[in-house]
BZ3500_MvSof-1268-A1-R1_Chr7-2g09487 protein
Amino acid sequence: MVYTRPRHARAAVFASVVLCLIMVVVPTSVLARATTIVAPPAVNSSRRPDREYIPTSAGADDGETLFQPNSTERSPEEPLLEEPHWLPLLKRARRRKPPSGDAWSGDTTMRIIGNLGIGAMQAIQSSDDELLKVLDKAQNNPLMIDGHSAWGNFCAAGTFISNGDIISVGGQTSENTELGKPGVAGDGFTGLRVFRPTTRQFLDDPRKAHIQSARWYASVIRVTDGSALIMGGSKKGQYNNERKVDNPTMEFVPSKGSQYYSKFLHDALDSNMFPIAFLLSKSGHVFVMANEIAMIYDWKNNREYRVEGPPGGIVRTYPGSATAVLLPLTIKNRWLSEALICGGVFNTVNMTNPGHDVRADEPVSDQCVRTSFPGGTRISGWHVEHMPSPRIMGDPVLTPDGKLLIVGGAQKGTAGYGNAIGMGEYAPAVGHSNAKEPNLTPVLYNPDAPRGQRFSNKFPAARIERMYHSAYLCTSEGNILAMGSSPNPRVLTKIDYKTRFEIESIAPPYMSKTRPAILSYPGQLNYTGRYTLTISNPMGCDNARVVLLDGGYATHGLHMNQRLVELPVTSFTNQSRITFRGPPDPTIWPPGPAFLWLTVCEGNIPSKGHKIMVGDGSSELNLLLDPPNYKVPF
């Protein structure tokens, strides 16, 4: 089936309460009309050369010649709206003109474009060019459902699964004083909530679906059969984990039987919540890091293989909350999995629970570590780089041209709220935050640049801090949305690090350039299948790339399942048709949704993205949303 892009996106704006939280649904085209961001000359350096992985015919078979495009050498308080909806605030943009170059050269602009009416603890783009889910905990937000909060999904985890549904697992209870009254958020620790974007069906009924044990601050990764692997968490909401409430187990949705005990997660106490996890190409195993240790997990056989952890004595998972990303899987590197982990908190800080002794001015690391996974249960060792500034709680946002934008967070302290010495509502410089000195300047990372030239930080500073309980997403328009921030137990607006409802748009310079367009495209890809795009290429470039991108389920600085994969292009005809191949196998892209992008010219100028499916869309969870098991939330 071929879908043709509609001439005009729908102008509707939907607001609803979903999951534990409030869910706001908005057209991403509305959110893209604001901004531009820029990549200047690179700064900072690292110390060791990377290995090169340069294939000559990756993905070709039967005498087929892959189209190989040219590439560089790898080596003071805003008023709340009475009725929260999208209103431009018409704020003057900040601009800075960098040198000319690729998709990131040009004017830089950031603008506040609206007011959410809720915070933004969790976010995911669910539909093509149309719907964005913004999720916040059940608290005293201005935007409610029937005058009260919704379900207990505070600090949950989530992902797409193979049939395109979004699942949200775990959570906590409401922080609303009405807890226990009918219709107000209750216990969400074992919650399993299912949302189907195509029909807006929604299931949140513990009698029909729930996970096997209580989980707060768990992580989720989609594996090669399209199911979701759920890892770890705590049985109780508190600053850090401890033995008596730890949940060092793993389970699957759909279920594969009893949950599994993980010695690795147990050994990673105390700071083992929100573990970092990436699905690895070739092997299909899962790389997991928690606290300072790491493993490769063979989920099919429930075997844990310890590998060397990063150097530096840095806690990189909550409340250390480093920035972690699986770098783009490209044809040039034969779809080799590579990970980058940046920032975190030094292990000399006492974050044990109980008995922690933390301050909002604790030093934070600027170190990045990078490694690759050549297959099996091995890693290639850790290579150290340094960001232009220290950062904790930063978000990693992959953009369709293959760059990484590191945004938000703080330069001192730890993640969380209510634990730092000297904090509180009568300490306005910090309030309840466990961190201070917001990091307002984005950093661009080019994975393919030579070492020492990968970081760029000459961006204008953001107007609004985005610290604990904030989220960023790259939309299908290509702009990046900055939402939320509330290191507070409830909505507070009279302190410096207050609850933020403003939404800010960051539009990379490519958004103001002449861009290609995908005119028609396949709605479904099978592995290694052959497909054709009809395109508009007004720049007349004679090279092109086709990529899949999933921005992931963004929460607490994690982008669960974020992934970018380049697909093999086999022909580029008359500037109007591109023939390409589907992903080689499920280890490269697991079954489930993706956004399809086209980039052209040497600077990789991207089109807009279009949601498609990889695989046949099957899942055991399909039955859960058959009548009468579902309700329509809006």
Remarks:
- The helical segments are 28-31, 263-267.
- The mean pLDDT is 80.
